[in-house]
Every structure is written in C-alpha cells, then in structure tokens.
Write a structure and sequence with these properties.
The protein contains four helices and 14 strands. With 198 residues, the protein is of the alpha/beta class. The strands form three sheets. Strands 1, 2, 3, 4, 5, 6, 7, 12, 13 and 14 form a ten-stranded mixed sheet that branches.
C-alpha cells in the first residue's frame, strides 16, 4: 500500500517516513497499530480509528485514535487527502454506505487506498444477506483473523463488479495486482485499489 501512496499520490518521497511534517496533507487510516501507525502516529497530518462499542463514535480513544463506524463516519465533508483501509470492507455490513462515506470525507481529487480480497473472474460473492435487520447466512460463515476481536465475519468476497460500484459512487479506480497473502489471518488474494474521487 505504501508503494501505491508514494507512486500514485505523493510522488515527492521514496518512503512514507520521508513525508515532511510540513506537508499539506491529511491522512485517515481506518486501522490502528499497523505499519502506517508506527511511522506516522505522532504527526499532525495523520489520524486513525477502530470501532469499539464501549466508545461513542467520534470520541478520541487515545491520542490521534478515534472510534469510528465506516458506515457513519463523524468527520466533516472533504476533510482528507488520503483514506487508507486494509482488508476492512469485506467485513463492513453495508459496504456501499461505507464507500459512500469514504467518498464524502475525501477532498476532490483525493484518494482511497485500500485492500480487499477480490476475484476478477466473477461477480461479488455475497456470503451474508444484510438487507434486513438480521444477518442471514447464504453460505457457510467465513471468518478472518482480527488482532482486536480475534476473528471477524466476512460478508462478501468482492468481484469484478466492484469497479462499477466505485464508479457509480464517484471514484476512478486503478489496481495494483501484486496481491497480499496472510494465511495466518485467513486473507487471500487481497489487492491494492487506488480510487480517486472525481
């Protein structure tokens, strides 16, 4: 992901650590304690989040770490230059609303850099019907490892139709096909998407 951010978005540095403190840039990462956090968490340009039912959405859980629900973000419109989500959207119950929220908080011309498991030879595999208040499993449940919750339900495995979904929301999307594999946490065929808000 860092490679995409450097080559597609920032273009003036060779590593994330080289982003100057004075860079007029705002980054939101919907993950905590990952490599981006380790490098950027003390910089004013960076904030991150997780979701915890013990905290009110929008509240600061610790310095620069907020409680956020991707389906209902508390940030103002057009706040960020970069939004990062790593293997999160397959676990978001209403993924379309989540993508719309990311689009809303991005400045025009800014980027959502994200990874999701994706099959490019078929449509999205819907594992759970979320059209009502109750989840209805359409396939045997699939769980991925999660450092906070232990395991987390995958509602879907994205397919080629993700491009139409993103286009209809207002993104132009490129993809990096150097996929990410994490057998320990059950993450396979995760690719880096670079969606620009138009």
């Amino acid at each position: 992901m860092a490679k995409i951010i450097i080559h597609e978005v920032i273009k003036t540095v060779s590593t994330i650590a080289e982003i100057p403190q004075t860079q007029a840039l705002s980054i939101y990462n919907a993950d905590i304690d990952d490599a981006f956090y380790q490098v950027l968490h003390q910089r004013n340009l960076y904030i991150c989040s997780t979701f915890s039912p013990e905290f009110k959405p929008g509240s600061e859980m610790r310095p620069r770490v907020f409680c956020q629900d991707l389906e209902n973000l508390t940030f103002a419109d057009e706040t960020f230059d970069i939004v990062i989500t790593e293997d999160i959207f397959e676990h978001v119950r209403n993924h379309q609303q989540g993508f719309k929220e990311v689009h809303r908080i991005l400045k025009p011309g800014s980027y959502h850099i994200f990874t999701v498991p994706c099959n490019f030879d078929r449509e999205t595999i819907v594992r759970v019907d979320t059209s009502g208040k109750e989840d209805i499993h359409l396939l045997p449940p699939e769980y991925h490892g999660d450092k906070i919750r232990g395991k987390i339900l995958a509602y879907r495995t994205f397919g080629i139709d993700i491009f139409d979904l993103l286009k209809n929301i207002g993104f132009v999307t490129k993809i990096d096909f150097s996929n990410y594999l994490d057998r320990k946490n059950g993450i396979f065929d995760s690719y880096v998407f670079c969606s620009k808000k138009v």
